[in-house]
Amino acid sequence: MPTFVYMTRCDGCGQCVDICPSDIMHIDKTYRRAYNIEPNFCWECYSCVKACPQHAIDVRGYADFAPLGHSVRVLREEEKGSISWKIKYRDGRVKEFTFPIRTTPWGSIQSPSDYAVPDANALGSVMLAHEPEALKVKTLPTLPPKKKV
Ligand code: SF4
Ligand code: SF4
Prior knowledge:
Bound molecules: iron/sulfur cluster
């Protein structure tokens, strides 16, 4: 589900326009406020929500993530180096998470061509390309074996 902008909070700074990977946040030429020009193409990546200094952008979450009546708030605080999420479910439960802002050095992410070409046997593996090394772990976590009943 797409983003939408609270017009009374938006000051037209354009940061959401610059960051949107889908290029769908635009500034309305008449009102000088941002809006989502093509809601169907919104990835719901929250980049614009985190970037907006006025907290003017909200997202109508997908039903599998947060059913009707929910709210999701995200706050990026650069000075604290953190991103905080607050998810309110329609039954009143609230979940809050805080994560550090990722500080991957510029140019340090390897492209697919930087990894060795996988051999044909890899097609039968449950691993995705370049796992687990691309995730910077030795092995992927596994579920504990089922207990016999
Ligand atoms: Fe663009 Fe992502 Fe914002 Fe959707 S959530 S409008 S894709 S930046
Ligand atoms: Fe408006 Fe926020 Fe987009 Fe700036 S980043 S144009 S304040 S919605």
